[in-house]
Structures are given as structure tokens and as C-alpha cells.
Automatic annotation (TrEMBL):
This is AraC family transcriptional regulator. InterPro entries: AraC-bd, Homeodomain-like_sf, HTH-like, HTH_AraC, HTH_AraC-typ_CS, RmlC-like_jellyroll, Tscrpt_reg_AraC-type_HTH. Keywords: DNA-binding, Transcription, Transcription regulation. GO terms for molecular function: DNA-binding transcription factor activity; sequence-specific DNA binding. Residues 179-277 form the HTH araC/xylS-type domain.
Length: 284
């Protein structure tokens, strides 16, 4: 399977045209006999259960599964005998068109295979249901601005899909997931970060994330964030003449008194004492 980065590189070169989109509910024991696919399409399963057979391989068709079909594929689709099957579908055309070294390169879909084929599992299924619902609504309307909105929404769909794949990959590679949140804290330490949001970013439970972070980094996530903030505060105390309240706010603390308590707990000195010792000037 291609990595999210490789998929993104290929999708960035493609220009899409939506041919058809819709929503369908099939009754139990519904069967679409074996056929050769003629158009590029995707199917998002939202309810029920079934089985899709692609090139002789059986795949579960259930909520959270996204299927990509390409011309030439041999496909049979059916719902379970005792369950209906509900899905959104989108049929599309594309061409590969991009600029390279000041020259435009153009290739047909026959010359440029689509980077996604077969079944994929989604982590954030409700997000993709929303996109498909909106595309279906827009498909029933006409107008140039509406057509542009459909194109933009499809691009958002691809971007969300790549993010979903990346999160899943990180969840499988816990060290990379931990390092990603570490980098995020370095860049966003001023923001009101929570343990829950960081764990969600890593694709892990809060308890599992906390244990792994301390194992890999040597600090708990909150201790690491606190030390980042205090290191930046020490720089500001020594190199600037900002008021203590401003310094507290610039490193993520709305309450300057709470900031002062945390600073003394981590550094061993109050902010004023630290500034006096290292700069010689009082903090206002």
C-alpha cells in the first residue's frame, strides 16, 4: 500500500470531474452479479452488512469501509441475507495535469492509474458521511458556483482521507505518534493543550499515550509541556522587559499567579528572583 505522502503526491497531480453521486439502500439478499467495472468510483458503506468480491477476493462491506473501483476490475457486490446495505457512491473522471519545470504535463486516466484501489478502513467515518451527504445535496443543484463548490468539497474529502490514513499509520507506529505530539507541543505550547487532545492526535487512549510518552521522552506529557513553557518564560524574563502578566500569557497561562507558582515549582525560584539573578533588572 502506498504511504499517505505518496498518495498525496499523486492526487495533487489530478484534476477531477464528478460524473454522478448518490445514496442507496439495498434490501437483504440484494446481489449485483459479477461485472467488469467501466468507471472510476468510490462507495462509502454507512449501514448494514454485505460482501464485495474484487478480483476473486472477498471483502466485508460494513460501516467504516470505503471502496475504490477502477475500470477493468471484476466485481460482485451483495448484502447479507438478513441485513440491508446502505451506502453513498461517487463516480468520477480524472486526468493527470500538472506543471513541471515550466512545462505542462497531461496524461489520461488510462496512462495514470488511480492511487487508491480496493477496500480501505476509515477511523473517522462520520466525517466522511458528512462529506458524501454534502456532495449528494450539491449534486442535485445546478450552477457554476455550485459546481465549483462540489470540486472544493471533493478536494476536502481527499485531504481528510489522507489525514485519516496518516492517523492510522501513526497509531500503528507509536514512537512516531509520540514524536508527532512532541513536535506539536513545541510549536503550540502557547495554546490550551489538553492530555485528551494530544492522545487523540496520537490515536491512543489517554492512559496508553501517557505511559508511552514518558517511556519515550522521559517526562509525562503535561510535565513536558510545563517545562517547554518555563524554558520560554526564562528566556523572556532575561531578555525582555515585559510585565509578568504578559510573559505568563505568552507561554499559555491566563493567571499570572498560577504561572508564578508553577515557575517556582519547576525552576526553584520565583519569576522575579530568577530575573533578578540572571538579568539584574526587576520584573514589573
Amino acid at each position: 500500500m502506498l504511504t499517505p505522502g505518496q498518495i498525496a503526491a499523486q492526487l495533487n497531480k489530478l484534476v477531477f470531474s464528478i460524473v454522478l453521486t448518490g445514496h442507496r439502500k439495498c434490501e437483504p439478499a440484494w446481489v449485483q452479479p459479477l461485472r467488469t467495472i467501466r468507471h472510476h468510483s468510490l462507495w462509502l458503506i454507512v449501514k448494514g452488512k454485505g460482501t464485495f468480491t474484487i478480483g476473486g477476493t472477498h471483502y466485508p462491506a460494513e460501516p467504516g469501509k470505503l471502496f475504490f473501483f477502477a475500470p477493468g476490475m471484476l466485481v460482485e457486490r451483495r448484502s447479507d441475507p438478513d441485513q440491508s446495505l446502505e451506502y453513498y457512491f461517487l463516480r468520477f473522471h480524472y486526468t493527470e495535469t500538472y506543471e513541471e519545470k515550466e512545462q505542462w504535463i497531461c496524461r489520461s486516466s488510462a496512462e495514470s492509474p488511480f492511487p487508491l484501489q480496493g477496500m480501505y478502513s476509515l477511523q473517522n467515518t462520520p466525517q466522511f458521511i458528512y462529506y458524501m451527504e454534502q456532495l449528494f445535496v450539491l449534486w442535485q443543484r445546478r450552477g457554476h458556483m455550485t459546481a465549483m463548490r462540489r470540486k472544493l468539497l471533493l478536494q476536502e474529502f481527499w485531504l481528510a482521507l489522507l489525514h485519516d490514513f496518516r492517523v492510522q499509520k501513526m497509531a500503528g507506529d507509536t514512537t512516531a505518534a509520540i514524536e508527532l505530539t512532541q513536535d506539536y507541543m513545541v510549536q503550540h505550547y502557547k495554546e490550551p493543550l489538553t492530555l485528551e487532545s494530544l492522545a487523540q492526535m496520537a490515536g491512543l487512549s489517554v492512559s496508553h499515550y501517557s505511559r508511552l510518552f514518558k517511556k519515550v521522552i522521559g517526562y509525562s506529557p503535561i510535565d513536558y509541556l510545563t517545562h517547554l513553557r518555563m524554558d520560554r518564560a526564562k528566556e523572556l524574563l532575561v531578555l525582555s522587559d515585559y510585565r509578568l502578566k504578559s510573559i505568563a500569557q505568552s507561554v499559555g497561562y491566563g493567571d499570572e499567579f498560577y504561572f508564578s507558582r508553577m515557575f517556582k515549582k519547576v525552576v526553584g525560584l520565583s519569576p522575579r528572583e530568577y530575573a533578578k539573578r540572571n538579568r539584574g533588572d526587576p520584573v514589573k
